[in-house]
Design goal:
globular; about 40% helix; mainly alpha; single chain; two-stranded antiparallel sheet
């Protein structure tokens, strides 16, 4: 039996729904911080607040921390610790980043605005970067800097995104195939699938139900 490829799925009915609730996307407006943690002497204590602040996703590559061990995500200093010792424990300088992006960014810093790494609080990320399937593509020279410096299209990241995209498409296909059924078992499966899709895509369950019409 020949199963449809990921590309064929994207052109199907499920693919049309996928375009409305993709698992990877960059914010279309600047993020306004909402968490108000107490002042800590150790920046590591801010990690749970940063996780909530940025919805459990790396601010640079948009990888989700669900299913990952706790050590795979770090407290990231936008302005490096060694250069800005006064900002080591300042919440506004801290971001939630996966280990890879944190490592690749390292001590990089530029006072020149056009050469600064993009972050969701100071930049409208979608104006500079866009996901095209598993790949991150540039929309500006600053976007290109992020892609190159953070190696956003390294083999591991691309493979991870491909797996998540495939899983997302499969779930959407299955939900669409069960639409209209009245079996309690199948309705329960749809509910669980919607929850999984919400975690994968960061869209609300309500939005997903509207898109999939279930």
């Amino acid at each position: 039996m020949n199963f449809p490829t990921c590309q064929e799925r994207k052109l199907s009915k499920a693919g049309k729904a996928y375009k409305k609730i993709p698992p990877f996307w960059y914010p279309t407006k600047k993020h306004q911080r909402t968490e108000t943690p107490p002042v800590y002497a150790n920046y590591r204590n801010y990690k749970p607040y940063l996780k909530d602040e940025f919805s459990g996703r790396c601010v640079y590559c948009r990888k989700a921390d669900s299913g990952q061990d706790s050590g795979s995500f770090h407290v990231e200093h936008y302005k490096p610790k060694l250069m800005f010792s006064d900002l080591v424990n300042v919440y506004s300088n801290l971001f939630y980043a996966c280990a890879s992006c944190n490592r690749f960014k390292g001590k990089y810093w530029s006072a020149e605005q056009s050469k600064q790494v993009l972050n969701p609080c100071d930049h409208v990320m979608s104006q500079h970067l866009v996901f095209e399937s598993e790949l991150v593509e540039e929309r500006s020279s600053q976007g290109r800097l992020n892609i190159e410096l953070l190696r956003l299209n390294n083999a591991e990241a691309v493979s991870y995104r491909g797996d998540v995209i495939e899983h997302t498409l499969l779930l959407i296909e299955r939900v669409i195939s069960l639409k209209g059924t009245k079996s309690d078992t199948e309705q329960d499966w749809i509910s669980r699938a919607v929850k999984m899709l919400s975690k994968l895509t960061h869209y609300s369950e309500e939005t997903i139900r509207i898109v999939l019409k279930v």
